Prior knowledge:
The protein folds into 5 domains: 22-157 and 463-556, 3-Layer(aba) Sandwich (Rossmann fold), CATH 3.40.50; 180-352, Valyl/Leucyl/Isoleucyl-tRNA synthetase, editing domain (Isoleucyl-tRNA Synthetase, domain 2, Alpha-Beta Complex), CATH 3.90.740; 410-453; 569-723, Isoleucyl-tRNA Synthetase, Domain 1; 741-810, no CATH class. It contains 21 helices and 30 strands. A hairpin with a 6-residue loop joins strand 11 and strand 12 (250-255). The two termini are 37 Å apart. The protein binds zinc ion (ZN) (2 copies). One zinc ion binds at residues 414, 416-417, 419, 442, 444, 446.
Amino acid sequence: MAKDQYNPHETEAKWQEYWKKNNVFSFDQNADKEVYSIDTPPPYASAAHLHVGHGMHYSQFEFIARFQRMLGKNVFFPMGYDDNGLPTERYVEKVHHVDKSKVSRKEFIALCLEETKKAGKNYYDLFTQLGFSIDWSLLYQTIGPRARRVAQLSFLDLHKKRYLERTDRPTMWCTFCQTTIAQADLDDLERSGTLYHVKANVKGTEEFVTFATTRPELMMACIAITVHPSDKRYEHLVGKTAVIPGSHAEVPILADEMTKMDFGSGVVYWCPFGDMNDIEFVAKHPELEVKIILNPDGTLNEFAGKYEGMTALEARKAVLSEWRAENVIEREESINQVVNVHERCKTPVEFLRQKQWQIKVLDQKDRLIAQGRKVNWYPDHMRVRYEHWVQNLKWNWGISRQRYFGVPFPVWYCDECSKVLLPDESQLPVDPREEQYPKGSCTCGSTKISPEMDVMDTWMTSSLTPEINADWGGKERKNFLPMSLRPQAHDIIRTWAFYTIVKSYFHHKRVPWNDIMISGHGLDEKGKKISKSAGNFIVAQDVIKKYSADAFRFWAAETKLGEDLRYQEKDVATGQKLLVKLYNAARFVFMQLSDFDRASKPELTTIDRWLMTKLHKLIVSSTKQWKEYDYSRPKAHTEQFFWHQFCDLYLEIVKDRFYDEKRADQKPAAQYGLYHALFSVLQLFAPIMPHITEELYHKYYWSDKKIKSVHVTSWPAADDFLVDEQAEKIGDFAVQVIEAARKYKSEKKVSLKTPVTARIVGPLQEDEWLLIVDDVKGTIKAQDIQYTFTEEIKSGPVEESFVFEIIQTS
Ligand SMILES: [Zn+2]
Ligand SMILES: [Zn+2]
């Protein structure tokens, strides 16, 4: 007969199929039960393979979904795919080697849809293989009709409430992605650069003034040079004119406090728009006429004169060679500089004037910080990151993107009077790029109407995931908002969390969720970020294939919430060992239970009550921790309880009652202890290791409980197990004795079954000792134990708290 061994792959697939077929995780639309709703992060539909970090992040809140379900709540656990917007477009450009400017909008969108379908399938497969308890009937896509309607409804509502404006102030521009971007899309990039000290003639004199710049290529845009008003060195030059070498343009020399006296030469040449300071500078000096010399693709335009058509890099070389020819470069200084780059492509940002829609957030900072404080942050210190972000905002939220694959603005413009023309809410979703303005003509009578061709920033839609889940403006779910939980990673606090709080406040004057849990990242074994380019990409499904989903999830629960977690194969292997141990222990337990009367309430011995007290305390602490989104401590403590107190001790201690006829009267109590404690262990492990626990539940408990899944049984209630502090104290002493005997035998290299005679001096009263003496003797195979009570040794380290002596080994 083949040995009964745990086969994780067969078992996991079996239960995944069972859960699906029996709708175990369906959200019940009509139930009266308390709803627990999760604002699942919709992953970008732009990854061919998913690494262990993705699996870890999603597992961590999947644990929570299962725990809350066992608390009896009606869990709303949806999935969404964030398949619109720049991440998808960039991915399509990469895998299909296309450039959006060289294919038609239709062709490009078709490719995007093709890729999002593939990515959706990838996620579905991974999440299913990890055993996620998602209700797939709640799936949404951010490019789908429901999300488009919600995003456009959001636009109309913001417009009505005057949170929107359309301006042509300079905006941040990515020349690589060819779109405007927002402050939240920026990253800092540290790099070394050269600061050129360049001499310019002061017109009508023999004198030269030396300015310092890192951007020679912007020379043709220069509108002024400035010195600090209190800089004595240059006082006499203010009001005069400088002749810029190379272009020979004449620009005013101004005094302006924005000049840093101690940077470079203390003289700045201003070439809007080279960076954010230029925007402030131009706003202060309306008298200066700005010439923007950059095309959207990063080449120079007609205002750049002889440099027209060059890339910025080519222009830089050309300008430098002219300056060298004129012999005006006084000094070249190596410096480290921090430049703002687009986080998705690492291209340094440029600034363009582009008419675009913006959501006004700068004048709402205090209110937005107050909203953030109404949400419970887990861990709490993550709230500070949110507040720092809001405090340091410098830009309103620009939402126009000059891209193809996104939710279109529900906007047309009248060609005659420039009026902004909007559809009615009931007409949503609309696509002005494909459809006529639904109301036909402007109020001015004109029928000459043009569509807005831009699409909205992808965050414009993903900031509305609570509203999408609630079906805002559709068949709205009642009393659904705020949602219970937003789980997300810490790197998108400034985007996803922030924008969602903004939207919820502007639309409904409330917070989007009660709680937010912030996960860390999965790192490689050396603590580095996992990425394809770094060559440390560990595909999540490979790990599941080699071990199991439960073992993978066991690893994902290793770290405290909010902390980054290194992928360590040995941790997955440890999880795998636990599965096998659970399986074998359960088999052994139930071999002893063939004649166990489930309804009985036998009188428990001290050791039984010791186990029940430990279990009670574990349940109390775990429940509290789970409610605070702490899965790692309950996991570690349950693991400790199971291996040590349950398997190493209790199971070994009660064996004697099964094998020794004379102790048969205490057998039902041992059966009771094993049966109930093992069930609680399965339940406590269920959120983290759903497959093995379901397997053992069905194998051993289902026929008694008749509930379709361990995952919908009620979370263990601590009250079921009475606390007996006295029994715990006495039991702890028995454990010390047993461990001392085991240590002795292992040091003497004799079998644990070798009979001994022992002498013990301990802190238990004689009558207390009698409560455990049979269990101790049975476990350490003592033929005789001479026990003496002493008052002197009541506490202290284990070894010193009592005397344990083997008198004879035979
Ligand atoms: Zn970019
Ligand atoms: Zn009009």
